[in-house]
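User: I'm curious whether this sequence folds into something compact or stays loose and floppy. Could you predict its structure so I can see for myself?
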Amino acid sequence: MRVKRGFKARRRRNRVLKMARGFRGRRHGCFKRANEAVDRSMMQSSKDRRVRRRAFRKLWIARINAAARLAGTTYSRMIHSLTKANVVVDRKILAELALFDMDAFKAVLKAAA
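Assistant: Here's the prediction. I'll summarize afterward.
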């Protein structure tokens, strides 16, 4: 006797098709093509989350370096002195300070010196 799998399989297929909404061509309506496209898009999205973190870190470093040079030092010297002085402020916060509150940034720089 043939078993049609029913509810569970339909729910799985519908979940994939829902994630493929907005794709073009057969990739949004045909389960097999949609499944391949969704798998690929999931891999790309996890990869791009890592790339986004990398890009933000580069941006923060560039902003900190520009502010440090205005304050009369360089990025590498500043980070080295912060590490030696056990000042635990991450690059995101340092970049925010450099962008919006230069006085506080210089205070952190003085605390490290």
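Summary: The chain is about 75% helix and 0% strand. Residues 7-112 form a domain with the c-terminal domain of poly(a) binding protein fold (CATH 1.10.1900.20).
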